Amino acid sequence: MKKGVIPKLDAQWWRKNRAVTLKSLGLGDALAAYQVKLKDFEAIAPGQTLPDEANQLFMDVQGLLNKNSKIVKSIDQGLTIANKTLHEETIAGLKLYKTKVIPDELTRLNAIYAQYERRYEQYLKEVEDGFDEASTAFTNFSLGAKAMVKGMKETTVNVQKALKARNTEALGGVDQTVRSMNGTRSNLQQRFDDAVVLADKWAVLTKRGADAFGGGDKAKYRKWDRDLKAARTAAETDLEKFDEEKTTIEQLAVQARRIVSGDAQREEDHLAFMAKTLRELLTETKTVKDNAAKYKKKVQLCRQFVGKWSTEYSDKNWIDTKDRWVKLMGGLLNDADELHRTAVGQLNRVKEKLAEGQRVPDGIDWMSRDYQAAAQKFQPVSREIGTQEKSLNDDSSELEKWRTKYNQYRTTKVKT
Asked: Which residue blocks in 359-415 are alpha helix, DSSP H?
């Protein structure tokens, strides 16, 4: 070892510069172990957070340089056994290890750790400040949303009262309320989105340190994480409640507009008209049904009289009998035609009245529950009208068949 050279805490350097005549001290192996621990510590040191393992590595690295370490004991052993004349330079180097190299290294390590701690404390402050900012944003949002929902509930009650009283003056301002409410909803969404951005930013900030917090810091982080998630869930619930109340007011606003415009009164008048028309239709449809039944009986009598001709009169020589049949059959046909004209006329009037009752005038909300319920009551009447129309048409077709037979038989000559 050259005189005046500052030794290094490096195994390779020691092995190269130690006096070859000095008995092995084990210093090379001790320095090699130190270099491994130092490398591990310095690899973690540039990080922003302070994992528990960094504390352990720092203590390990310090421990390899304290007075009870293998390095110091090897140096002390060398100072004891070295020959003052033969190993003068080596003795000077070993003394420098104790008086300068190791103290300087400990100072350097402490400086690294101190800087490391400052960064960790700064990181903790960023985490705490980030939590406070995001949590406050959600809390303030919820307070504002709750206050708005409370005011909206009062508005709902007032609008319901105005609707019940048909107070058009009070209801005239509902549209303005809805427009204002829509603006408030946009503002709330922006505030909620801003709070979410802060929460997401905090999540990213803590992700790299979540597994590195030590002791009480880890417990604090976990509480912050739970609290922030709870604040976000509460804010989402408050926003949903705002939307529910907003929907209620918008539905009431639809009713308010109908009252102010007069559509609601027109709908009530039309529903009353539909109810009156339905009562009349029920009565008139029964009359159509009764007349259709009478017509059917006349057609059946015509069928029977045609049968009588075939079985009783066609081979008879009685002119009087034939004349009587023709007279009776002709009377039945005339009666049937009159009943048919009456029933068809009534049926057409009923169909017109049904169409009028089912017509939807302008300003009527045909999708409303009241209108749909009223319109549904017309369905049985419509089906009954269709049934009677088919019955009249079928019976009319049959009657034409018997009319043809009647004309054929009427001109048939009877044997004399």
From this structure: 369-376, 378-410
Q: How far apart are CA 268 and CA 284, in angstroms?
A: 24
- Low-confidence residues of the chain, pLDDT below 50? none
Q: pTM of the prediction?
A: 0.58
Residue 262 gets the label, from left (phi > 0), alpha (psi -120 to 50) or beta, of left
For the domain made up of 126-261, the CATH class stated in words is: mainly alpha
Amino acid, res. 303: R
- Helix, strand, coil percent values for the chain (each to nearest 5): 85, 0, 15
**C-alpha torsion angle, residues 63, 69, 75, 77 (rounded to 10):** 170
**Rg, the chain, Cα only:** 54
Give Cα separations from 257 to 170, 172, 176, 321, 360 (angstroms).
Answer: 11, 8, 12, 78, 19
Distance (Å, rounded) from C-alpha 342 to C-alpha 346?
A: 6
8 A C-beta contact, residue 391 and residue 296: yes
Identify the pLDDT of residue 210: 63
Q: Measure the CA–CA gap between 156 and 177, rounded to whole angstroms.
A: 11
pLDDT of residue 314: 53
Same fold flag, 126-261 and 264-410: yes
Pairwise CA distance, residues 148 & 161, whole Å: 20
CA distance 258 to 247: 17
Distance from chain centroid for Cα 80:
82
pLDDT at 312: 61
CA 328 vs. chain centroid, Å, equals 79
- Paired tokens of 87: 């190993």
Residues 77 and 91 sit within 8 Å (Cβ to Cβ): no
Q: What's the fold here for domain 264-410?
A: Methane Monooxygenase Hydroxylase; Chain G, domain 1 (1.20.58)
pLDDT of residue 179: 92
The sign of the torsion formed by the CA atoms of 161, 165, 166, 172 equals negative
Place of tokens 């009208």: 385
Residue 139 and residue 231 in contact, taking contact as beta carbons nearer than 8 Å = yes
Cα 18 to Cα 92: distance, rounded to the nearest angstrom? 11
> What pLDDT was estimated at residue 200?
95
Domain ranges of the chain: 11-124, 126-261, 264-410
